[in-house]
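Quick check before the chapter quiz. The format below is the same one you will see on the exam, so make sure you can read both the input and the output lines.
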Amino acid sequence: MISHSLFSDTLASEEGADNVRVMPLSEIQQRVALLLATGHTAREVAQKMGLSEVTIHRWRQQPEFVAAVRGILKQNKQALNERLNNLAIKALEVLEAIIDDPNASTTDRINAASKVLDFVNQNQLLSSSQRDQSPSESNGGDRHSEQ
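Here is the expected output.
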């Protein structure tokens, strides 16, 4: 199941202070936090765990419980990003193998190359739009030089 140290570490880091004393969650609270963080509604969790929705809503107001749910969400997001990165690497390796395979049909090689270029273009567009959203120092300097 979920270790107490995982929750204690998560809670301490969520609070942002080393000297914060955090009350550990009970085993039931840990299971409820996990269910909520994985997309179950309070009503579903209450029914599954034999609790009232009021209890779950009360727990959701407690900072240590909120921190535990956030910690689980953060870990899940990190794990998902890692899996997606690994899959992207595998996908690119497959496309590269098709492009390099002299026995692959011209159509397959062109399709593979096209997918790689689409991926590169999409990432360049994303990078470009992120740069456009945050004004750079050089743009600020350019405005002064134009005036």
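If your answer matched, good. Helices lie at 4-15, 27-37, 42-49, 53-59, 63-100, 106-133, 137-146.
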